[in-house]
Amino acid sequence: MIANIGPSNYNYEESLTTLRYANRAKNIKNKPRVNEDPKDALLREFQQEIERLKALLLEKKKKKEKSGNDENERQLNSADGVSNGEATEKLSEKISAIESKLLSGGKNIVDHTNEQQRELEMKRQQLAEQNRREREILQKLEEKEESTLEVRETFSSLQQEVELKKRKLKKLFAKLQLVKAEIKDAQEANARERRELEELQSELMKELKLKYLVIENFIPMDEKNKLLSRVVYDDDEEDWKLMKPVKPESRVITRRPISNPKANRPICEYAKIAGTVGSGLRYKNENILDVDLIMPTRLIKEYSAPTLSPSVSAALETALKEEEEISIDASSRVLAMIPKEGNTTHRVGTAKSARPKTALKNIQLSNHSTHPQSKRPDSANIFPQSRGLIQRK
């Protein structure tokens, strides 16, 4: 069980009710019950009720025996004695009737249980009434006991009252003397402290007059005014303080700090980016309009090379191409076909020319082919000629 209570005074009543409820909840105990036949359960309840009633009768008999010696109980029981006796007799008769019904047979069990239930309800009502009367009797007894206690606390005689008041008076007189002594000690301490304060005040006045005399006669008025302007009273510490002198350089108004030393005014990062992008005069460092350059009209033209005819370009491409090596078979028939000039002999073999000479021939052939008079066949152009022959010396 967890109870939440508060320590404040306005939660006192709520805390008490919470604690009472927690105590009641803590004392709750669940009683287990066995599953049984309702008839057996009813019989068991009747037997328990009979035993309980017998126990009540025994308790009442014991109370009657004990209350015979008490006068107060006799007075209280004088009015209700007859009724209690009749009630006990009735209860005993009902108990005997219940026992006889339990022992007797031959009746319908349903009717029997219904009658027993009605009788049980009546007994419960009677017991509740009897408990109420008992509570009333107990309340009256408690009230009488309280009254007797008050009577016992009262004084048996006037002499005892006088002695008690004398003792109280002595205690009060001792307290009065103690308070007077404390007041006298406080007055003496106050007077002593007052004398010390007066002496301190006189010494301070002397020192103050001396300092005023020195200031008036030996310190210029400008220095005095500067010093007085630096004096400040601190309310927290309750003391006068002398502030530091202000340098003349610090009185000069400094320039406003700028974010960029090259800029004339503080500019944020967003304004810098917007200024570089070029979003108008708003984010510019200076109020100067940036205008693009006006280019003049062009009066000259660029040189373009003339275009060649397809035949010329094809001839140039063939002339610039490198030719493969040509191997010639220098047999006897070929040597017989070569004309002899003097005593010079030729060595037949394979050789490379430093530069192919057929390119110029091809150019000449192309030129002759383009010419209208160069359409006749030439024997020298039909058959290939040998190249790379070196004359012997």
From TrEMBL:
GO terms for cellular component: mitotic spindle; nucleus; spindle microtubule. Belongs to the TRAFAC class myosin-kinesin ATPase superfamily. Kinesin family. Gene3D superfamilies: Kinesin motor domain. This is Kinesin motor domain-containing protein. GO terms for molecular function: ATP binding; microtubule binding; plus-end-directed microtubule motor activity. GO terms for biological process: microtubule-based movement; mitotic spindle assembly; spindle elongation. The lineage of its organism: Eukaryota, Metazoa, Ecdysozoa, Arthropoda, Chelicerata. It is found in: Cytoplasm, Cytoskeleton. InterPro entries: KIF11-like (IPR047149), Kinesin_motor_dom (IPR001752), Kinesin_motor_dom_sf (IPR036961), P-loop_NTPase (IPR027417). Residues 59-90, 366-393 are annotated as: Disordered. Residues 110-210 form a coiled coil. PROSITE patterns: KINESIN_MOTOR_2. It comes from Leptotrombidium deliense. PANTHER family: KINESIN-LIKE PROTEIN KIF11, KINESIN-LIKE PROTEIN KIF3C. Keywords: ATP-binding, Coiled coil, Cytoplasm, Cytoskeleton, Motor protein, Nucleotide-binding. Residues 1-28 form the Kinesin motor domain. It comes from the Eukaryota.
